[in-house]
Amino acid sequence: MRVLYCGVIAVCVALASASLAQERLRVVTTTTDLRSLVDAVGGERVDVTSIVPANVDAEEYQPKPSDALRLKDTRVVVRVGLDYDLWFDRLLAQATLSQSNVHGIWRGGPGYVDASANLAILDIRGASVGPSDGHAHGSGNPHHWLDPKNADIITGNILEVLARVDPQNSPYYEANRIAFLQRLEAKIGEWTAKLAPLQSRPIIAYHNDWAYFARRFRLNFAGFIEQRPGVPPSPSHLAELIRVMREQNVRIVVRQPYEPEKDTRFLADKAGAKIVLLAGSVGGLPGARDYISLFDANVAALLAAQESQ
Amino acid sequence: MTDAVALLWPPFLVALCLIGIHAYFGIQVLARKVIFVDLALAQIAALGATVAFMLGHPTQSAATYGYSLGFTLFAALLLAYTRAWSSRVPQEALIGVIYVVAAAAAILLIDRAPQGAEHLKQILTGNILTTGASELWSIVPLYAAIGILHFALRKHLTEARSWFWEFVFYATFGVVVTSSVALAGVLLVFSFLIIPAMIGVLYADTLARQLALGWAVGIFASALGLAASFAFDLPTGATMVCTFGAALAVAGAIRPFLRGGARGAMQGAATAARWALALVLVASALQLMIAPRAEQPLLNALEYAMPALRSAYLNSTEAGVYDDARDYAERYTREADQLNVSEARSRAEGEALDDFAVQRISSFLKSYGEMRKGEEFVMNEVRGRARERVRWALGAVLLVAGIAIAPGVVTRCFSFYRIHGM
To answer: Which of A47, A69, B7, B389 has the most other CB atoms within 10 Å of its CB?
Structure first.
């Protein structure tokens, strides 16, 4: 008899967990960072995947047919915004046109999250090139997730949409977000303390990915090798950078793993500086497994370079 | 100035080496009518390096170079063997196919690898500006050896009767192209290969003279390109390609003067210039009369060169509105720039701005952007309305000017009038 009871209970549990697994809310994000943040808020009640693989330049990503199929049955999409993932607009349009079971995830739909909404945007120059809702938003620097404080607003944007699409679980999402932000707050204190010795030391970067990071940790990025994406530096610009590096005694040149090594090496050798690999996204370095360890890995890399000099 | 020289002389030396060997290969390539063969060989070598990368070999290892070389030699064999495979289809078609298939195969291979696309890009987009002594050490012996080999075997290689000598030609060429593309990128290597050779072949008959002329032009164009890229703050490779293009244009334009009597050439040039000018004027006149609000490239260019022209058709109120809008647009740009600079400075220096202040700055910047767009709209609107008003008069003037400039039209009309009007 007892065996029968156990068997019935086991079957019930199995069925319940199977149905629970099916009910997990499908979320698709463009980048790995947003995937990690959705994970932090949605926990085990969401099934989140990201489109752009780690260490691929998301601004130049070309969607594959499987990416459009992935949007099938997806209830929530999350993008970086600010013209960073422009290709996502076409992917969304194509998925909504060609598949019947794509609901509410079009631009401005109930399941659509633009992570950049309500953030304080840096480096606003000129106008946006993407489709807009009537306003001429200056596009600004899109690397906003690299300020860990911005996770507060980004997870807020995510929470709002998750709670709208899946209201039953909204207390769970809310509790998750608060716990995550508390953990992050403690970490921000730790990172700030660790990076304090670097505050007076100017740094050169390959590309202007680090504006938000620099602002939060008060780092001085004194120049960038590539001024416009995809255009190699001119000789006068390189000469100016070398002059700045010698004058201000710059010891660190930062690049992401996917950015060209040769130009960075040339500049670092000329001025006797060290090249530091930083991850601009989750998965960019072996240690950067999620949003918090992304900063752990970058802080550790910067400190190692600072201490070796 | 010393900065410029210190930065530019290593790439200049690299350019000298590249021109030295490529001008020679270019003359051979022109003679064989296989213009794009360098692209195909470079792409095949990149495919070889990609295969090595996928098998786990590091980027700059002997194994990777071995794979590149193996793939290049295979392509050389294919090219040599198919030299006369069909009289119906030119070999250039096969070269194109090799290029696209090698490029596509590399993309398919690299698709699953992290950083794959970037790896592939780095093989094919060298930057001559950041090359230096270490690169010279590796290419000078290699290019010298191949140069000596070709000089020793010149009889066999220039005539290339058998497929074996063709293979030797393509194999050595492949080795050269693979290493030079990694240094200077596909576009610049193609210019080094074809443009000095074209100019040499245009003006000289023997190989020695063609080479000497190609080298001289190539060295001059490289020096000019490097200097221009420094002076005007432009990317080096792209600037050099454009100076090479300009050198070819000049060489092509002065050729008729040197070859076929200066007078006839001068007349031909004048006729061509008059026709071109007449067409531009007539097209602008029609554009202005049919669609006065549309973009008017000729009028815009003239106004840009001589802003005073604008006052010729704007009345005083319009001119006032236009100037105000322009001043405001400039002011907004300037203030937005200042705001950006002071915000960027506050990230590391002085008192840190809190989130609220940054939020305010970013909304100010957005407003400045919209206000500037508004002023630009006003400028376009004022100008568009004024152009609409004067479209018939100004259009007629442009039309008459165009017809008057066209060669022969006025004299023909005049003689028609004399014969029939009398």
So the answer is: B7
In a mutagenesis test of the A interface, which of B118, B241, B343 is the best target, namely the one with the most A β-carbons within 10 Å? B118
* Contact residues, chain B to chain A, C-beta under 8 Å: 3-4, 7-8, 114-115, 117-118, 121-122, 126-127, 129-130, 132, 226, 229-231, 233-238, 336, 340, 343-344, 347-349, 352, 355, 358-359, 361-362, 365-366, 369-370, 373
Give the confidence band of A18 by pLDDT, cuts at 50, 70, 90: very low
DSSP H or E stretch at residue A275: strand A274-277
A123:B344 CB<8 A: yes
CB atoms within 10 A of CB B113: 16
What whole-number distance in Å separates Cα of residue B416 and Cα of residue B63? 79
Q: By C-alpha distance, which of B252, B164, B262, B160 is closest to B201?
A: B252
- Indicate yes or no: CB of A234 within 8 angstroms of CB of B233: yes
Q: Closest Cα of chain A to B253: distance in Å?
A: 30
pLDDT tens digits, one per residue of A254-282? 988 888 888 888 888 888 888 898 988 88
pLDDT digits 0-9 by tens, A73-109: 888 899 998 888 888 888 888 777 776 667 777 787 8
Residue A120 touches chain B, beta carbons under 8 Å: yes
B3-47 pLDDT, tens per residue? 778 888 889 999 999 999 999 999 988 988 888 888 888 888 888
Of B234, B347, B362, the CB nearest to A120: B362
Facing A127 at nearest CB: one of B118, B359, B373: B373
Q: Among residues A227, A270, A236, which one has the least CA distance to residue A250?
A: A270
Confidence band, pLDDT 50/70/90 cuts, at residue B114: low
ipTM reported for the complex, 2 dp: 0.73
Type of residue at A296: D
Residue B149 phi/psi, 5-degree rounding, is -60, -45
pLDDT in the model for residue A135? 41
Closest CB to A239 among B3, B130, B349: B3
Q: Count CB pairs under 8 A between chains A and B.
A: 122
Q: Check if A253 contacts B (Cβ < 8 Å).
A: no
Dihedral angle over CA of A170, A175, A180, A183, nearest 10: 170
Contact state of A56 with B117 under an 8 Å Cβ cutoff: yes
pLDDT of B26: 93
Q: What is the pLDDT of residues A174-201, one digit of tens each?
A: 999 999 999 999 999 999 998 888 887 8
Residue type at B204?
A
CB-nearest partner of B236 from A123, A125, A235:
A235
| Those residues with Cβ within 8 angstroms of residue A117's Cβ, 6 or more apart along the chain or in another chain | A81, A153, A157
- List Cβ neighbours of A205 (8 Å cut-off, separation of 6 or more): A221, A223, A224, A225, A253, A254, A255
Rounded CA-CA distance A154/B242 in Å is 46
Nearest CA of chain B to the CA of A78: how many Å?
22
Of A138, A236, A258, the CB nearest to B369: A138
Dihedral over alpha carbons A286, A287, A288, A289 (to 10 degrees): 90
On the question of pLDDT at B313 being above 70, the answer is yes
Put simply, whether the predicted model's pTM sits higher than 0.80 gets the answer no
Q: Answer yes or no: are the C-beta atoms of B189 and B181 closer than 8 Å.
A: yes
Nearest CA in chain A to B122: A260
The total number of residues shown for chain B amounts to: 422
Residues in CB range of B272: below 8 A, 6 or more apart: none
Phi-psi bin for A168: left (phi > 0), alpha (psi -120 to 50), beta? alpha
